[in-house]
Amino acid sequence: FKLMMLLTWSQGLMKLGTIIKTKLTTKPISISFNRLSEKDIDSILLIESQSSKNPWTKKQLLDSIKNPINLGYTLIYKAEIIGFLLAMPVIESADILNIAIDPRHQRKGYGKALIEHLTQVLSKRGIAAVLLEVRESNISAIEFYLAIGFKEISVQKSYYAKNSNQPSSTEDGIMMRLEI
């Protein structure tokens, strides 16, 4: 912390006061990560449906969990799954397929924690980068990824269907990369 001296005039008398400036501190949070398994499907399906305008289906989630190549992790807080991440490692990079945090716990650092956990795992495997695609309309996600170090590397034209009711209506995807 810093001490600063402050001179003030009150009723014609000079007073000397002290202001203490402190840095904002945050309490450490107790979280853990577990390997994502089929038994977690109900929890992650609920998180996915509540946190995404274009949620994955149960089948899509299960297929990704069952794929032996993919990495999947749940984030546990107070004995409850509050987030998950699915990634597909390739030779020198890994693609984040899906990441979601329970809306009640968003903007508290849990998404960043999941990505940091993934990068630690990938680093031990000698993987040097993480890639992802995000809808161009998902401004909050783009801002989040930029804030934690991702860089925009390209735009994928018409990468996403706007929604399942109008598959002919498309939206560009922003491709992003994080160096580990």
Describe this structure in words.
The protein starts with a strand and ends with a strand. The radius of gyration is 22 Å and the shape is globular. Strands 3-4-5-6-7-9-8 form a seven-stranded mixed β-sheet. A two-stranded antiparallel ribbon has the order 1-2. The protein has four helices and nine strands; from the N terminus they run βββααβββαβαββ. It has 180 residues and is an alpha+beta fold. The protein has helices at residues 41-51, 58-66, 110-124, 139-147, and strands at residues 2-10, 13-21, 31-35, 71-77, 80-89, 93-101, 129-135, 151-163, 166-179. Helices cover 24% and strands 46% of the residues.
Give the secondary structure arrangement, pairings included.
Blueprint: E1 2-10, E2 13-21, E3 31-35, H1 41-51, H2 58-66, E4 71-77, E5 80-89, E6 93-101, H3 110-124, E7 129-135, H4 139-147, E8 151-163, E9 166-179
Parallel strand pairs: 6-7
Antiparallel strand pairs: 1-2, 3-4, 4-5, 5-6, 7-9, 8-9
